């Protein structure tokens, strides 16, 4: 063990030596020179501490500020884009598979369809839709309640009416759906 | 007896090797320290080791930065027991993507763009590489992209902070290279 000569030669006394030397004195066994050589990080931190009177703002160049601004805008723009994906914005009503109407899911309204055995009433509220009443004997599509998710579908088979939610960009998200 | 001891293989170690090893060691230390930090979401980390990569890129060029970054990924994952685990490949994909972007970003005019730009661009490339690999391999569903805003926010915040730290380190005077003398 000959820490002193090694330490002196490998330049313990560069730049910010005061801070780091004190730290090294308490370090066990490794010694000054070895510590300095294998830890450029520590030496960098000591230098940074010594020069800490410079303001952080001075480290930003004009291009940096512009790039940060652009990046922040992009990040902010990505939030609604991705959170709105997967939420429905249209209700599609079909009779015998033929499109009857498309209802936007942004306002409350009711819509009636004359089907094979009577009238089916569709109710739309912001972000959701349901079959309010149906002449079918078992009322499956009525009891299904509110539809809120993209591609959710309520089928009133006796009256040949279907109600399906869809999102921007159409129904291309799925090739097939099973219930 | 003598010939047998002489047959020891000696690999010549250059000054470059020492420099890269020293910086890689610092980066690995930061990786290990960072592994102890709790993360709100898997994949969101400060990426403190990238400070070292940025400093090395500015002072010693892209080749050294690539060495340090990749050594950090491999050796760091060995230390924290992640080698060849999914996290390792994600880190590798992120490191490769950000090295690719840094290769381009180093040609930005130094008058207008500093380390903060490089850091933010590299951070975005990092999440880009990770998400691409995750989408292709780990989670083959577009659902991973729902997390993109969170990852992008983390990249912006930590990229900026790391860039500022790197800029400050670079603004301080360069220490004499601490090369071991022969026979020491």
Give unreliable regions of chain A as ranges.
1-36
List the quaternary state of the chains: heterodimer
Main structural class of chain B: mainly alpha
Largest interface: A-B, 38 and 43 residues
Number of strands of chain B: 0
Average pLDDT of chain B: 87
Report the span from N to C terminus of chain A.
76 Å
Indicate the topology.
The complex is a heterodimer of chains A (about 180) and B (about 180).
Chain A: H1 3-9, H2 17-26, H3 32-38, H4 40-50, H5 62-84, E1 90-95, E2 98-104, E3 109-114, E4 119-125, E5 128-133, H6 140-143, E6 153-156, E7 161-166
Antiparallel strand pairs in A: 1-2, 1-7, 3-4, 4-5, 6-7
Helix pairs in contact in A: 1-3
Chain B: H1 2-6, H2 15-35, H3 49-60, H4 62-79, H5 86-105, H6 115-138, H7 148-171
Summary?
With 179 residues, chain A is α+β, with helices and mostly antiparallel strands. Chain A has helices at residues 3-9, 17-26, 32-38, 40-50, 62-84, 140-143, and strands spanning 90-95, 98-104, 109-114, 119-125, 128-133, 153-156, 161-166.
Question: Would you kindly provide a written description of the structure presented here, covering whatever features stand out?
Answer:
The complex is a heterodimer of chains A (179) and B (184). Chain A has 179 residues and is of the alpha+beta class. In chain A, 35% of the residues lie in helices and 23% in strands. In chain A, strands 2-1-7-6 form a 4-stranded antiparallel sheet. Chain A is rod-shaped, with a radius of gyration of 35 Å. With 184 residues, chain B is an all-alpha fold. In chain B, 67% of the residues lie in helices and 0% in strands. Chain B has helices spanning 2-6, 15-35, 49-60, 62-79, 86-105, 115-138, 148-171. The longest helix of chain B has 24 residues, at 115-138. Chain B is globular, with a radius of gyration of 18 Å. Chain B starts with a helix and ends in a 13-residue tail after the last helix. The mean pLDDT of chain B is 87. Classes of the chains: A alpha+beta (179), B mainly alpha (184). Chains A and B meet through α3, α4 and α5 of A and α2, α6 and α7 of B.
């Amino acid at each position: 063990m000959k820490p002193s000569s090694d330490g002196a030669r490998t330049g313990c006394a560069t730049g910010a030596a005061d801070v780091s030397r004190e730290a090294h004195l308490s370090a066990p066994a490794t010694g000054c020179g070895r510590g300095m050589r294998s830890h450029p990080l520590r030496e960098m931190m000591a230098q940074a501490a010594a020069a800490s009177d410079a303001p952080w703002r001075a480290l930003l160049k004009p291009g940096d500020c512009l790039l940060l601004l652009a990046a922040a805008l992009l990040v902010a723009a990505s939030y609604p884009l991705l959170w709105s994906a997967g939420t429905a914005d249209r209700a599609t009503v079909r009779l015998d598979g033929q499109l009857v109407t498309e209802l936007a899911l942004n306002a409350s309204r009711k819509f009636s369809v004359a089907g094979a055995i009577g009238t089916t009433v569709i109710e739309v509220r912001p972000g959701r839709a349901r079959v309010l009443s149906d002449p079918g004997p078992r009322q499956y599509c009525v009891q299904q309640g509110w539809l809120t998710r993209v591609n959710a579908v309520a089928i009133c088979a006796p009256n040949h009416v279907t109600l399906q939610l869809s999102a921007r960009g159409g129904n291309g998200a799925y090739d097939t759906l099973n219930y | 007896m003598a010939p047998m001891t002489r047959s020891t293989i000696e690999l010549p170690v250059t000054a470059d090797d020492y420099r890269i090893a020293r910086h890689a060691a610092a980066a690995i230390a930061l990786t290990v320290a960072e592994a102890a930090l709790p993360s709100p979401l898997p994949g969101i980390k400060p990426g403190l080791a990238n400070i070292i990569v940025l400093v090395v890129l500015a002072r010693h060029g892209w080749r050294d930065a690539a060495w340090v970054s990749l050594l950090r990924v491999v050796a760091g994952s060995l230390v924290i027991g992640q080698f060849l685990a999914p996290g390792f490949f994600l880190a590798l994909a992120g490191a490769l993507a950000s090295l690719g972007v840094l290769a381009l970003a180093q040609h930005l005019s130094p008058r207008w763009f500093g380390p903060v730009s490089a850091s933010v661009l590299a951070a975005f490339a990092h999440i880009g590489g990770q998400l691409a690999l995750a989408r292709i391999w780990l989670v083959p569903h577009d659902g991973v992209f729902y997390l993109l805003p969170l990852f992008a926010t983390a990249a912006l915040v930590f990229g900026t902070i790391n860039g500022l730290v790197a800029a400050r380190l670079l603004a301080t005077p360069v220490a004499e290279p601490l090369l071991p003398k022969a026979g020491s």
